[in-house]
């Protein structure tokens, strides 16, 4: 699936939950979807306007995107279903930490431990963010039909982050002894 199709999916998906201004859409993509999906802000506005030209979203209110509210149309919902039904395209892994650890003998055990400790600390912080997000959205969305799906993605983030913490602990234990 092309990058532009993925951006369309993010924009249409967010608007399927509720109509919003372009600015609110950008914030929702950053603050909620951003926990598991990164989207270039430079792509959101052009995609929104292209979707409007194609009739997949409709603008209510002013002529300016910032003051207008955008809502998904019937054809937009059909397009979203089409995009969501396509096979998931896995992106090739690019994990800078794993690259460094793979060549860790050259970097040295102490510096590898520092990298793993920093990763663990970041995961602890991320876990707190997921838990706050889950709590906040449960209060806001708990009775909406979207909630089970939103909750599922946040819980996946929590499980992934907990596994990162467990891996870091195991790795730090493995690096604690033995020769450099």
TrEMBL record:
<dbReference type="InterPro" id="IPR005149">
    <property type="entry name" value="Tscrpt_reg_PadR_N"/>
</dbReference>
<dbReference type="InterPro" id="IPR036388">
    <property type="entry name" value="WH-like_DNA-bd_sf"/>
</dbReference>
<dbReference type="InterPro" id="IPR036390">
    <property type="entry name" value="WH_DNA-bd_sf"/>
</dbReference>
<dbReference type="InterPro" id="IPR018309">
    <property type="entry name" value="Tscrpt_reg_PadR_C"/>
</dbReference>
<dbReference type="Pfam" id="PF10400">
    <property type="entry name" value="Vir_act_alpha_C"/>
</dbReference>
<feature type="coiled-coil region">
    <location>
        <begin position="113"/>
        <end position="140"/>
    </location>
</feature>
<keyword id="KW-0175">Coiled coil</keyword>
<feature type="domain" description="Transcription regulator PadR N-terminal">
    <location>
        <begin position="11"/>
        <end position="80"/>
    </location>
</feature>
<protein>
    <submittedName>
        <fullName>PadR family transcriptional regulator</fullName>
    </submittedName>
</protein>
<dbReference type="Pfam" id="PF03551">
    <property type="entry name" value="PadR"/>
</dbReference>
<feature type="domain" description="Transcription regulator PadR C-terminal">
    <location>
        <begin position="94"/>
        <end position="174"/>
    </location>
</feature>
């Amino acid at each position: 699936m092309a990058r532009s199709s993925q951006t369309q999916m993010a924009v249409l998906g967010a608007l399927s939950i509720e109509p919003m201004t372009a600015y609110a859409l950008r914030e929702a993509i950053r603050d909620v979807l951003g926990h598991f999906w990164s989207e270039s802000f430079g792509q959101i506005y052009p995609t929104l306007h292209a979707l409007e030209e194609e009739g997949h979203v409709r603008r209510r209110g002013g002529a300016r995107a910032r003051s207008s509210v955008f809502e998904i149309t019937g054809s937009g919902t059909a397009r979203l279903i089409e995009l969501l039904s396509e096979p998931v395209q896995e992106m090739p892994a690019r994990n800078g930490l794993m690259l460094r650890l793979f060549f860790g003998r050259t970097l040295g055990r102490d510096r590898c431990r520092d990298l793993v400790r920093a990763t663990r600390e970041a995961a602890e912080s991320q876990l707190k963010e997921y838990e706050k997000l889950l709590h906040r959205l449960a209060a806001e969305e708990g009775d909406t039909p979207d909630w089970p799906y939103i909750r599922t993605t946040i819980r996946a983030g929590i499980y992934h982050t907990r596994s990162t913490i467990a891996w870091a602990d195991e790795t730090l234990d493995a690096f604690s002894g033995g020769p450099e």
